[in-house]
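Researcher: Watch the backbone:
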Amino acid sequence: MTRLALHGFTQRGAMWDEVASRVGGPWLAPDLPGHGGRPACTWGEAVGSIARLLAGVAPPRCLVGYSMGGRLALAVALDHAEVVDRLVLLSASPGIADPGGRERRLAEDRDLAGRIERLGVAPFLEEWLDRPWFGGGRVPPPEWRAAERAARLGSSAAGLAGALRLLGQGAQPYVGDRLRSLGMPVLLLAGADDPRYAALAQDMGRAIPGATVALIAGAGHALVGEQPAGVASLLGDWCPRE
């Protein structure tokens, strides 16, 4: 089974390297639009490009997405179910249901995008990694923070700002009312120390027929980097090599 893994905002496809090495088998982990050297694009264009990449892979195919990548993976599974045999969403969301809330988030994302352009990538990352969801409210170890910062430095300010404007939660269409249409096996993961996204995983799990929900102990929002062994164990069972 080939896994196509999508990273989170400010990250790169290489965020999956440790998990992929633990699980084994074939993996694809592209940089998403606005990250690395890729230009930003609209939500619909990003979903379509991921679907086309999956269509070029022989089945069975497991689509895996974390945070922003999880939101995109969910959209691909809903709009292009024929290319997704299994779906794994980590720290993901179906979007914002309230139109007014979506407009407010879009305005916040645009403000933050402007800040990225004014500050530059490195100073912005110092602020971004200070946000309380990293480490589940704990202070992350200095070595973890240093590694995360280094891994996120390969994108441009223009690219990240564009990704936030075009792929942020304010730009994402709400799909919570479509979850019951998912027919493939779905695994929902969140950090046990990330109450917002743990609750979202459980809510989505109740809406998706036959979905499995697992909360990973000792992890906050950044569960892939915080608990790679636990993530790999669950993924290895859900998306086996054969």
Remarks:
- The longest strand covers residues 61-66.
